[in-house]
Every structure is written in C-alpha cells, then in structure tokens.
Amino acid sequence: MDRSRDEPHHSNMLLIDGESLSIEDVVRVARDRKEAELSAGAIDRVHDCRAWVDTVIDEGKLTVYGLTTGYGSLAEISIPPEDAETLARNMIMSHSVGVGEPLDEDVVRATMLIRANTLGKGYSGIRLEVLETLLAMLNKGVHPVMPEKGSLGASGDLAPLAHLALALSRDTEGGEAFYRGRRMTVEEAMRQAGIEQLDLKAKDGLALTNGATVSAALAALILHDAELLVKNAEIALAMSLEAMRGVSDAFHAKVHLVRGHEGQRSCAANVLRLVEGSELLDSTNRVQDAYSLRCAPQVIGAVRDTLAYVRMVVGAEINAATDNPLIFLDLPETRQNKAISCGNFHGEPLALAMDMLGIAVADLGNISERRCFRMLDISLSGGLPAMLVEDSGLNSGLMMTQYTAAALVSDNKTLAHPDSVDSIPTSANQEDHVSMSANAARHAREIVTNVEQIIGIEMLCAAQALDFRRRGLEYSKVSWQEDEDPQGRKKVVEYELKKGHEVSKDRPGRGTEAAYQAIRREIDHLRQDRPLYPDLQRMATMVHSGEIVSAVETVLGGPLIGPAEMVIKPI
C-alpha cells in the first residue's frame, strides 16, 4: 500500500523517497541542519523488501550473497541461518578500518541522508527500524566519527560506512560520535540524544556499507561549492578586466554564439552584465588583451560545461540503488522475487566526475593567478603602481599574495592527478578493479578550497587596483640618469615614479562596483605594509559563503547565470 498521497509529515522536514533528492536538499540538510524523514511510499517498499529477506533466512533454501554467504572473496562459504546476526556484527567491526582525521560534519550529515535515501528505494532488504534510527541520529545531531581515509570506492565506501554502522549497533565495539560539539563514545552520544541502539541483523550491515555514499556526499557538497565558485571567478574576472582597462569586444555575444558552447556564452553574458555602465573598459588604444582576460570566457565556460556533466552524475548517484545484492520483487519475466548480485556499489561514475571537477576547478585557479600577476607587474598592468602600493620598494604591497596564489596553483597540479586511473586489487583478487572515488572526491574538495583562496586573492588585488583607478592615478616606469659620481662615471637606473599623475577618474560597472564595495566594507585599502593573512582569510570566507555573489546579485536585481541554471543545447 502506497500512502504517499495522504502521508502526514512535518512541513519543516525534507521528505525522502529514494527518487527525488536534489543536490540542494543535500546541502540544506548537511549545512543548515534541515531534518528529514521517509515518505510513506518508501516505508512500504522497505517493509515489503525486508519481508522477503526474512523469508529467505527463515527457510534457508536459497543461496544469497551476504545473507547466507560470507563477503568478498569469502562468498563461497555458506553461513547457516543461526549465524546471520553474528555475520552482520562481525562485518561491521572487521570493516571499521578507517584512518586519518574525521570527516567534516557536513560530509557525515550528507552521507547519512544519502544512505537513508538510497535504502529507502526498497531494493536493499534493510529493516525499517535501522533506517528510522539512522534518520533519528541525523535529526538529533548524533554524528558518527568517520575517518576520512581507507575507502577504495569499490564495494562502496566500506571503511567509513562501517564506522557509521558502528554507531547504530548495540553489540559492536569502539564506535565514536560527535554530539553537541563533543567527541564521545557512541553509546554516550546515543544515550544523551535519547536514541536506542539496535542489534543489527542479516543484511543490515551489508546494506549500510555497500555503496559509494561517502564519495557521493563529498561530491554533492563539492559541486555546490564549485558552482558558486564559478560565479565568484566571473566577478573576479570582471573586476580585473576593469582594473586593467580591458577591451570588451572579446565578450561580445556574437563571438560566443558562433562557437556554440553554452558555458562560454553564459560566462560572457555574466561578465557583460557585471561591467554594464563601466567607464574603464575600452578606455585605451589596445585592440586586444592577454589571454588571461581575452580567453577567460572560453576557459571558465569549459569549467561550466564540465560542472554540468558532474551535476548529472551526482544527481543520479544520490538517488541510486547501490547495494549488493539488490532485491527485486516480482520480476516481470519470471513473476518471482530475486536477489541479484551486481556492481552498483562501484564508484567509477563519481571517481571520473570528481577527477574532471578537480581538473576543471584547478584551471580556474591557474588563469586567476595569471591575472593577479599582471595587476602586480607595473610593466603589464597598464598604469597601476608596482605591487599595487604607493611608495613601492619601501612597501612590498600585495607582492606576496601572488606567491601564495602560485603555491596553491602548484599544489592543485599535484592534487588534480586523476585518481580514477589508479586501481589496486583487493580481497584475494575478487575485487580486482577499484575506483578510488573517495580519494578523487577528497582531492577535488581540497582543490576547490585552494581556488576559493586564489579567487579571493584576485579580488583583493583587483579591489586595490580599482582604488587607484577611482582616484584617477596612473603610474609608469621611467629611465633616470643619475649625476656623475666622484669618479666621473654615469649609470642609468630604472626608477618607478613614486606618485602617479592624475588621469580621468573613471568608474567601474554596476556589478563590479557592488563587489568592490562588499570587499571594502570588510578590508581596508593597503596604504602601507601590514600582515595580510587576515585579509586573505576573510576573502576566502567571503568567496566560500557567497557573500560577494549575494551583494552583486542584489544590486543587479537578479541572479547571475549559474552552472546549475545553464540550458545545455546541442551544438
């Protein structure tokens, strides 16, 4: 019976049904602490599937992987029905081999939600009580300690998910959890939260651990951050373009229409919207800019198109049945129930997607750092002071921020090495090809964090440059011939003019001005050297939170085109 049409549920809760979970839903639950519950339809499916599992165990006639057999390379060993619970218990404990720092709270919460949604599809044979306990933990803030390393993304993210399962199980040992900001034994956390632990039974442990769910959780959160980062990157580009009095022709809609890539068209459209009303653009005799400005729509656009593919993959994965075996009731061809051993737990779709995302976002950082470099070099910046500070020489200005950006760019080149091309056989060669999806996701997340900092550095440099443009100051290098020294020798030295001469005080476009003002509300103009690390930290926070994007979109009267909003059309 499907009660989904008349099911009661709290309006502030997310209803999960195994079919319609969105990436935005994952973010709301993971970061905003929205609560979740199973739909009535999902409850019915879980109940019906479990009833068949109980029949199989009670009758003991069928051989079903993980129910009446061991796991992995031990699948040929039969397990009698009376040992089914011991098998589930032993599996959880033996698979809890994660190492490293605990996964962040948002990743743990996303994992719990996605796993509950996956199991709610009704193909896993898990008991309803287990799912309800998992969701109670999520809603009450009991977050199992799940070490970040140890998964191959093959038979799912076995190690970290086993640590999750430890928290639910009453008769296992060693589980830990965070509750109300404190790390404690899982028994204490569950007691304080008023949640009863369970005795895991046949198929419960296998259902909880089979599937690349940690990889999917990381991927959903990373994708969300990367899509926001693209908007920040386009704002940074617009600011740099204005700071260097760039040429707008390279962003003309016709240019991008005739190439046909949707991401490229969206990027150029956003930049033109950001710089609308600018008095700085096209104010020189240059006919074209360097690639880091002129080709930015082509580069950022390619990143956008990559993220569109990643969104398709992640959106499917967070609603996927990823258990093994999968249990199908009343198969059409036989009108019988069947447990089918399969490989839906394999994380290859996510591994490839995360590798692609990491490579794409790393290139956002590459091109951003090049624009930082141009603004800081007096011979390339079109009249900006050396290192973007007056009295340079006495002051180093923003010189070292480019060093940091360069270090992060180099770090990304190592992190972007694709994990999906690696595979190390395990389980006596039964699992002879693995995806490394969790590694790919962890590395992609680190790349995104690095590029948030790089884009923040570009925005900081561009805001400093716009200060000089707004004051109408322009700087240059001159050759200066010194007086003869006592020995009668002359030498010619390059001197930077310490004070700029005034030119027209042109203003930036509406969107660029909004970004500039948002930054200046938090960070002052650099008049003389000071420790810059607080400024860099604040800029990275503003980029990650979307604070600058929000300020810009408010002034523009509507959102910029985001990667998630692109309509991909055939070329």
Itemize the secondary structure elements and their pairings:
Elements: E1 13-16, H1 23-32, E2 35-38, H2 40-59, H3 84-95, E3 99-102, H4 105-119, H5 128-140, E4 142-144, E5 147-149, H6 158-168, E6 176-179, E7 182-185, H7 186-193, H8 204-209, H9 213-243, H10 253-257, H11 262-274, H12 291-294, H13 296-317, E8 326-331, E9 336-340, H14 348-376, H15 399-415, H16 437-470, E10 473-474, E11 477-481, E12 492-496, E13 501-502, H17 510-520, H18 533-545, H19 547-556
Parallel strand pairs: 1-2
Antiparallel strand pairs: 3-5, 4-6, 6-7, 8-9, 10-13, 11-12
Helix pairs in contact: 1-4, 1-9, 3-6, 4-5, 4-9, 9-11, 9-13, 9-14, 9-16, 9-17, 11-13, 13-14, 14-15, 14-16, 15-16, 16-17, 16-18, 17-19
User: What is the molecular shape?
Assistant: elongated
What's the architecture of the largest domain in CATH terms? Up-down Bundle
Number of beta-strand segments: 13
Strand order of the largest sheet: 4-6-7
Overall radius of gyration:
28 Å
Q: What is the count of distinct domains?
A: 2
Give the rounded overall mean pLDDT. 90
Strand content: 5-15%
Counting DSSP H or I runs of 4 or more residues, the number of helices is 19
* CATH third-tier fold name of the largest domain: Fumarase C, Chain A, domain 2
CATH homologous superfamily grouping of the largest domain: Fumarase/aspartase (Central domain)
Helix percentage range: 40-55%
Biggest sheet, open or closed, and with what strands and sense?
3 strands, antiparallel
Stretches where pLDDT is under 50 for at least 5 consecutive residues are: 1-9
Q: What is the top-level CATH class of the largest domain?
A: Mainly Alpha
The multimeric state of the shown protein is single chain
Termini distance? 46 Å
